[in-house]
Amino acid sequence: MIRYVVKRTIISVVTLLTIIFILFLILQFMPGSPFNDEKLSVEQIRILNEKYGLDKPVYIRFVDYVVNICKGDFGDSYVIQKNMSISQMLLSRFPVTIQIGLQAILIGIFFGLFLGILAAVWHDTFLDPLTSLLSMLGASIPSYVFGLGLMYLFGYKWKLFPILYSSTEQFSSGILPSIALSMLPIANIARFSRSEMVEVLQADFIILAQAKGLSKHKVILKHALRNALIPIITIIAPMIVGLMLGSTVIESIYSIPGIGNLFVTAIQVNDYNVVISIAFIYSFIYIGAMLIVDILYGVIDPRIRVAGGTN
Amino acid sequence: MEYESSQTIYYDFNKEAFLIADKTKKVRDEKKINDTSVFREFVSKFTANKGALIGFFAIILICIFALFAPFLTPYQYDQIQAANQNLSPRIPGVESLGIFNGKIMGISQYEKTNLKNTYYFFGTDTLGRDLFARTAMGTRISLFVAAVAVMIDMFIGVTFGLVSGFFGGVMDLFMQRIIEILSGIPSIVVVTLLMIVFKPGLVTIILALVFTNWIGMSKLVRALVLKQKEQEYILAAKTLGASDFSLIFKEILPNIFGSVIVMTMMSIPGAIFMESFLSFLGLGIPEPMASLGTLVSTGYKKMMIYPYMIAIPVTVFVILMLSFNLVADGLRDALDPKMKNV
Amino acid sequence: MEKENTAQDEMPLLNVIHLKQYFKVDKKNIIKAVNGITFQIKEGETYGLVGESGSGKTTIGRSIIRIYEPSDGTVYLEGKKISGKMDEEKRRFISKRIQMIFQDPMASLNPRKKVIDIIAQGLDIHEKGLSKEERQKKVYRIMELVGLSKEHANRYPHEFSGGQRQRIGIARAIIINPKLIIADEAISSLDVSIQAQIVNLMKNLQKELGTTYLFIAHDLAIVKYISNHIGVLHLGYLVESGTTEEIFRNPVHPYTKSLLSAIPHPNPKIEKTRKLLDYDFEANQETYEKAREYHLEGEHYVLATEEQFNRWSDEHPAFIY
Questions:
Q1: Selected residue of B105, B278, B281, B321 to mutate for chain A interface (largest A Cβ count, 10 A)
Q2: A-B contacts at Cβ under 8 angstroms
Q3: pLDDT digits (tens, 9 = 90+) for A181-223
Q4: Rounded to whole angstroms, how far apart are CA atoms C186 and C279?
Q5: Is B33 an 8 Å CB contact of chain C?
Q6: ipTM more than 0.90?
Q7: What span, in angstroms and rounded, lies between the C-alpha atoms of A287 and A13?
């Protein structure tokens, strides 16, 4: 087991370093050095280069770069807010994104599981095909459509919620975006938990539990649910990617001052430092999530725990 | 221990009860079991799935729309007529039913600007361009981009998976390590990196789509190849002396092709999705070309006032996605229900 | 007396000497599937290799045809060494002369290929210059030979019954006229009545084409019917071998005896008094490692330790030379 964890961690770190390397390379080749639009003399440019360490050979700059990232220093933004430390920008925007994201996940898990279990338990009624259709719709309609639709209906027409996000009404203005973002997770979790539950409910040990005389509800909640939930770990990583993608768009629509919004703006105005930094953050989150999922798998799947690794 | 019996036992039986067998007749096994080919079975399973059928026909309809719609209007998709901007949809004949009558909040836009006899089926956008033609063009481009990306995916993924799975050994290990590292990069990062390094355009988008999908395809192909490799008919072909090349392409490939097609189909919605995302963020198809995503992104700016500008492309988009998802699910169920958990 | 491995009156078609096949499962465990097997097959004859599952009989077949790489030992075909380092020439030599019929008639046929293409695969590899008509003619001829009709040529394997599929497998094997065919449990998965048909087909083919068979099976009754020689395998060792007549008339090794005792007899009177002999290898703490080959008579050999041999000779004094 330990060997397995170590192996997975090493691979994660290597992947992350490879990504940093690629990001770094891209940064080098991007036009737009910080000093291009200033009218500077050659001498002044040389001094500035020295100050920012831009005259050192490439591999030293790379090592510096990595070290800086580990210290949390991502350099400065050159376009969006000149000479503002990127890490400061990121820190101020993180909480909002995390808030919306977490709310979306919670809504997604709650309603997704609810629908999925409903469909599974009553899968010989109309509820099953209905939930299938709903989850297919949820997967076919992009989150920005949901975002716009919700904004139009609940914000504009029926005036139930604020249209745009505002930091003064954090909770109420965060509801619509969270719901919009949660649509895809709901659809996926519902579909997944339904098929798992259906399989588990037909398993022999469930019939045994019922034969023992347990009430149907107890059977469902205690035994079936626990077994059906475990494979959900498999979809966590793809779901995180979906959330990242969705958040960029949802934040743009609702004017939420989060990381996703910053990312989109940075791309549009070619502030490469910011783009690269956020790309790194996203990669870090994704790889970290996958590592956690792998470790969880190791804990749950006894084959890995005992034998010390899969084939 | 004795085997042969030393006694001969005689039995009496009625001679008429038996007929001497005709040795000249060859004893044949039972006749063929069934007559249907694999393909016909597959088609019948697919057509039994109503959702898949609906999706299939919807796709055909949309393709027809995308191909022929531009011929139904006199306007070009990029024809700017500033005077005719922001007109809502108006379809002759249907307008007497009270919908698609060119009215917004009760006021007919066409009457205001003295255009009593012009019809824009889907209305116009802020630059006066005909949205009917633009939607058709947008659908065409979305479909084209998705199809091309997915085809390239198939080729790269299949080749990678075939080589990795069939030859195994060190090559497989090495290739798998590469795949592991590459799949650790979230697609959003890959796509944005491509976007900022290269100019946004048709080719860049196709590249971005290819990059995000081929890994999944190669993993699937490799798993399928590994499974087929152990089958006895491969062993039989090997003992006959078949070359590796013929083993891969004549023996294994025909047996995994169906699953490959299904996986390809299933990645089309994802490609269309991704393209529309990029377009929505302004990184997609450049003007004056349009894709469904760009139409939505421009339409959203005026969403509150002119909802039709966004409603129409969104509807087409959702129908397209839904249809492809239904068809892909139907294909998968008809071909191999065991793939449900992929 | 030790068995002699040198040439006999005529060179045997297949000569297997001290064949060993070990499989490494992981760092600590090695499975010794085949432990030093020696036997020969003369051209035109059938050698029946019998044993239960795990005895190594399938492994022997696959090692000979180089699906597995032999861990030790030598194999000669027509006097030429076919074990050892593999190259393209050797591969062609082997695949032209040795073919295999597999146990599972469904799995051994490519479900996506037409019957005509399955059967013609050997031609496509070894006789490349054939025109379409010539190829078709050859396939039809072979199909008739194995009892299939031409109309079946354009169909797919799943449309046939198990017996018919096995005929297809046989057709595929014989179309390039190999000298030796290894039938690896070729009839074990068929209905008993079909088994008889297929075995008869194989016998007839042998008469017509002069093919040599290595017939691997676990059913001694069928093996008796088709084989000239029999080798009895247990746990990777050849515990007894000889002509069919010798083995059935005077089985010496207790394992052989227990196998024979399990064959039902068609005569109900004898069948009623048949007793099943038990051979408990582990209980008796037998070991084959210390045993060696003893020559009994003619071509009859048995694997025994000195102590065992003396014990058995005391029970059957006729065998001592």
A1: B281
A2: 104
A3: 999 889 888 888 887 877 777 776 667 666 776 666 666 666 6
A4: 27
A5: yes
A6: no
A7: 9
- Contact call for C126 and B241, based on CB within 8 A: yes
Per CB-CB distance under 8 Å, the chain C contacts of B237 are: 110, 121
Written as six digits, the tokens of A35 are 């000093």
Contact C98, C77 (CB under 8 A): yes
What structural domains and CATH numbers belong to chain C? 14-315 (3.40.50.300)
Integer Cα distance of C44 and C206 in angstroms? 7
pLDDT in tens, chain B (342 residues): 334 455 666 777 777 777 777 665 555 554 544 555 666 777 777 777 777 888 888 889 888 888 887 777 777 777 777 666 677 666 666 666 666 666 665 556 666 666 666 667 777 777 777 788 888 888 888 888 888 888 888 899 899 889 888 888 888 888 888 888 888 888 888 888 887 777 777 788 888 888 888 888 888 899 889 888 888 899 889 888 888 888 888 888 888 888 888 888 888 888 888 888 888 777 777 777 788 888 888 887 777 777 778 888 888 888 888 888 888 888 877 776 544 433
Q: Inform me whether the C-beta atom of residue C246 falls under 8 Å from chain B C-beta atoms.
A: no
Interface of C with B in 165-184 (CB under 8 A): 169, 172, 176
Report pLDDT digits (tens) over C70-115: 888 999 999 888 888 888 888 888 989 999 999 998 889 988 888 9
Residue A65 CB neighbour total at 10 angstroms? 21
Closest Cβ–Cβ partner in C91, C98, C159 for B34: C159
Q: Report the alpha-carbon distance of residue B162 to residue B205 in Å, rounded.
A: 26
pTM for the model stands at 0.77
Using CA atoms, how far apart are residues C168 and C162, in angstroms rounded to an integer?
Answer: 10
- Whether C270 and chain B come into contact, CB under 8 Å, resolves to yes
Q: Give 3-state DSSP helix, strand, coil % of chain B, rounded to 5.
A: 65, 0, 30
A113-135 per-residue burial string, b: 16 or more CB within 10 A, e: under 16: bebbbbbbbebeeeebeebbebb
H helix runs in B117-184, sequence order = 131-167, 169-182
- Put simply, the answer to whether A275 touches B196 (Cβ < 8 Å) is yes
The 10 Å Cβ neighbour count of residue A49 is: 15
The span from the CA of A192 to the CA of A180, in Å, is 20
Contact assessment for residue C234 and residue C51, using Cβ atoms and an 8 Å cutoff? yes
HSE of B242, CA atoms in CB hemisphere, 13 A? 21
Residue C121 distance to chain B (closest CA, Å) = 8
DSSP letter (8 states) at residue A153: I
Asked if residues A234 and A196 have their Cβ atoms less than 8 Å apart, the reply is no
Nearest Cα residue to A240 out of A165, A300, A181, A171 = A181
What's the gap in Å between the CA of C14 and the closest CA on chain B?
Answer: 17
